[in-house]
From TrEMBL:
It comes from Algisphaera agarilytica. One of its GO terms (biological process) is P450-containing electron transport chain. It comes from the Bacteria. This is 2Fe-2S ferredoxin. Residues 2-103 form the 2Fe-2S ferredoxin-type domain.
Length: 103
């Protein structure tokens, strides 16, 4: 399972080794500030909004149509925005860096 670095809204780095599940669940389990996962990961709250580091956007891929629908109502949306609950963590994402948008 991959190592993931989350950069919190305050600028702190939280490194999660052997992250499991998806970007939201791994963040909640490791108390990453700014990711709440209020809807439990069903793409209906956007409390897991992250910006994927530019070096990783191709590997992570773009937001799906469902995510784009949720992000439409959010502040701070950029081309590299994703909902963390929709990014499954695989070994291919080892070293991934994301910036937590928070609210
Ligand atoms: S946890 Fe609700 S949209 Fe991701």
């Amino acid at each position: 399972m991959p190592k993931v670095t989350y950069i919190t809204p305050a600028g702190d780095e939280v490194v999660v080794e052997n992250a499991e599940g998806n970007l939201m669940t791994a963040a909640v389990e490791n108390q990453v500030t700014g990711i709440d996962g209020d809807c439990g990961g069903v793409c209906s709250c956007a409390t897991c909004h992250v910006h994927v580091d530019p070096a990783w956007t191709d590997k992570v891929g773009p937001a799906t149509e469902a995510e784009q629908g949720m992000l439409e109502f959010e502040d701070g949306v950029e081309d590299n925005s994703r909902l963390g609950c929709q990014v499954k963590l695989t070994s291919e994402l080892d070293g991934l860096v994301v910036r937590v948008v928070g609210r």
